Amino acid sequence: MMMKLRKSTIRLLALSLFYLLYLVIGASVFSAIEGPQERELIKSVKNLRSKFLTDNTCLTDDKLEKFIESIVSATNRGVSATKNVTMSEPNWTFGQSIFFAGTLLTTIGYGRVAPLSEAGKGFCLLYAMIGIPLTLIFFTAIVERMMIPTKMFLYFLFRKLGHLYRVFHIQLLHFFILMVAAIVFIFIVPASIYSALEPNWDFLDSFYYCFISMTTIGLGDYIPGDNPDQKARAVYKLGTTVYLFMGLLVMMLLLAVLYDIPELNLGFHFYLKSDEEEEEWARLRSGTESSGPKYTKQRDDDTHKQTGGSQMYQPTQDDVAAATGN
Questions:
Q1: What are 100-139's pLDDT values in tens digits?
Q2: How far is CA 64 from CA 60, 207, 311, in A?
Q3: pTM, to two decimals
Q4: How many CA within 13 A on the CB side of residue 225?
Q5: Separation between Cα atoms, residue 230 and residue 96, nearest integer Å
Q6: Which of 146, 158, 142 is nearest to 319 (CA)?
Q7: C-beta separation of 309 from 263 below 8 A
């Protein structure tokens, strides 16, 4: 006898298929866009290499291969071979090390600069094992306090608009205002600054860097201050580290505000707990058929309180106390 699948399990299976399809679509698009560019680059490098060997007959292909491997290995380790390996500052000054430690603890991990020694790799493992959970605790504690003025602003909107709009609509407005502010001060303004400071970055490159960093993807193809001629490199890296920490805190705050809107918590429909809620709702509906309209009204009121999307908001003393942290 086949076991009946839960509704949440069926939805999860459908989500899994959609997610797999999304992966395939993304891979297809990236392959179609980047594939021709890569083939052109390969062709160009082959022609350049062939021309170099033709102009320098005293150099064998094997020697050139070893030379290129050494250059690529050094570049991947964050050491530029241009200008006779001269840089304004090395990779492991204190400012640079602060930047590396920040990207390590926030799990951004650009990967351009990494420990070379065995001792450095071992310390990196231990440092990350302790530091990453510590960073999560620290960020959570800060975001909890950032939520106090955020909720005060939400209750201000409730007082001004609560008699005109539903709770859900006011929450959407509140989230939209915060999201616009975050886009301006965490993405647009920093991108404008980076595009002005980085000689080879345009605004799209800078915005791309900000997005990749704030989402902790950390591809490492764009890193501020990696230009060999960068002045005050350590200070620049330190400022970027401060930006990364502040930006990630704002991103976590946005997620916390979004999570407080039940109607937008789509993930709940895929949890096992959602089955229990639906079963309870079904039992209550069946109970209303014999219990009359009085129980129906009670259940509707409870539903309104949970969703917040079908009633007008009436601020309470508890809300004010929660907003002020008392």
A1: 999 999 999 988 788 888 999 999 999 999 999 999 999 9
A2: 6, 38, 74
A3: 0.78
A4: 22
A5: 13
A6: 158
A7: yes
